[in-house]
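Collaborator request log, item 7. Partner lab (contact: R.S.) asked for a structural prediction of Catalase to inform their binding assays.
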Amino acid sequence: MASEPEQQASPGGEPVLSGPGQDSEFLTTNQGAPVSDTDHSLKAGERGPTLLQDHHLREKIMHFDHERIPERVVHARGAGAHGSFISYGNASELCRADFLKPGKQTRVFVRFSTVVGSRGSMDTARDTRGFATKFYTEEGIFDLVGNNIPEFFIQDGIKFPDLVHAAKPHPDVEIPQAQSAHDTFWDFVSLHTPAQAHVMWQMSDRAIPRSLRMMEGFGVHTFRMVNEAGKASLVKFHWKPKLGVHSLAWEESQLAAGADPDFHRRDLAEAIDAGAYPEWELGVQIFPDDGTAVFEGIDLLDPTKFVPEELAPVQPLGKMVLDRNPENYFAQTEQVAFHPGHLVPGIDISDDPLLQARLFSYLDTQLTRLGGPNFAQIPINAPVSPVNDMFRDGFHQHRVPKGIAPYKPNSLDGGCPYMSQVVSGQQPPLDFPQPVPESKKVRSEPASFSDHYSQARLFYISLSAVERAHVQQAYSFELGKCTDPVIRQRQVECLAKIDSQLAAGVAKALGLPQPAAMELADPIASPALSQIGKSWPVDGRKVGVVFNTGNHQHVPGIAQALAERGMSPLLVSASGGEVAPGLPIDRTYLTARSIEFDALVLIGPLPPAPDASVALDAKAGAAGAGGVPLDPRLALLVTEAYRHNKAIITLEGLSDGLLQAVGLEDDAPGIELVQVDGVADSAQQLLSTHRAWERFPVKD
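Returned to partner:
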């Protein structure tokens, strides 16, 4: 007979049921069996594949996968779009996949997402971003499920529940939402040092993208490609955005969280609606499949490592264009189900222990989220190729199978369905005959997995001075939100193993003792990692054309010239209405905020404050018409754009001295005074480098 749960008193005196559960001094399985290692999955040798028999791995991840109903445990907040992928046709020596054949066009659906926040959180949180692409190929579904950071926090999938439990809001008060600036996250990161490389990227500008259209994507893991002759190569996938990789300023991301929490999903949808279709090139880094899975000293099975492009150039394989927004968010963006095990002939997985666990986890989680095993029949998940899987019944079964023998072998259905070799004469598509070394079953990892700092240092020293300053500020902000001084100090000690100046700067900002300087190796920098110093197309860049409602004769021409060069003009005035028939004012001073614009065009003279209730005080006043203080909402729009290094264009004879009236320098970098017919050329030139970083120089 089962014993009754004991009653205990809570701190407030209320009775609390304390039944069987979290009451063991030692870690156990869900059934009470002791656990001696929860850091490593069971593998066939240190570098071997993960074994299905690992009951602790399966139980731990199974429970984690079903902790939330029905929202995704991670990647809950997402935005999606339809499009197509066109192959360049240069992959024949590398991969036999049909969708990579010359000129092949394949329908795709892409879902971008934040990782930590709930569905109701903001788009612009400092966070890793998911970048998942579903290819509807003629050989079946291929899912490339990646992130915007090429490394991950952990090396073994068995640690994923620990990572997410640490990153999610504290379980007692359910705060903070969609943020890593809290004790449990940094407690885990400072103790689980394999996370240091990924966190360095997360503290950089990469974690606050300007737009989903301006975000790089990575497959994270090492995959295997096999050509028609059966020759295999190891590869890492890359998505390169046509518009380049650009980011928000940290203050912008915070402002957007309040002013427009849907900032990224709105930008994506509006760009597609405007015909500024986002584009990426899909490319791969290629490595010999020689049995070592090591390239230039970098372990390719370690998902906390990346390979600099200078060592292994990215070979472009095709172009993806997103040209259609979802017809229904729930039916498509919310119900789309990705899985790294959705593979096609010519693409296979490696023995990366994180990838091996994902092959179980992604499939298992759909049982809770989508109500059963038939989620592939939901239209957004359905393949375009014929299906005959012999699966039957289950929740949400929509197919009406024919025949009476859903088993193999059979004679009652004529032996159907046949094996693929019988039909096509081809080798099995997914079973590359990779040798498995003879070894004992162990919970362990290769010695090469123990390097947790060198790639964080490589990334950091590859950044420009201004980007390194942003990293230091990010660590200072995040750790400043931690309440436990031990955690702050421990993470600063970790930074000392990455860069002494970085650690010293963060320690000073936090009022902590400066760690002793260490002699650190200087790897060769990778210029490809910096976002600054290049020139990019300006397609879809938003330019705010700011004017006085009574002074708009130049607005239609300026808007047309900007649009002809691929930019998206947004007309901003004191009140709504139309500038001309069919040309509406898009924003008013009340609804506009600088975060929405990549550049401003100021057409003066601009109006004064409408009444005393919104007038600036004398100290902050800016002269408007007749020397009356300028509308403070407009002054805020301009000063924020200036502070965030955005391009500002004023017009000769109309806007002279306007910036000085707001208390700003009108000859600062990124600011131009031009004729009306020169506005579009000026905007295109200034926006091609994203921001005028030299406006506020940072010492190296």
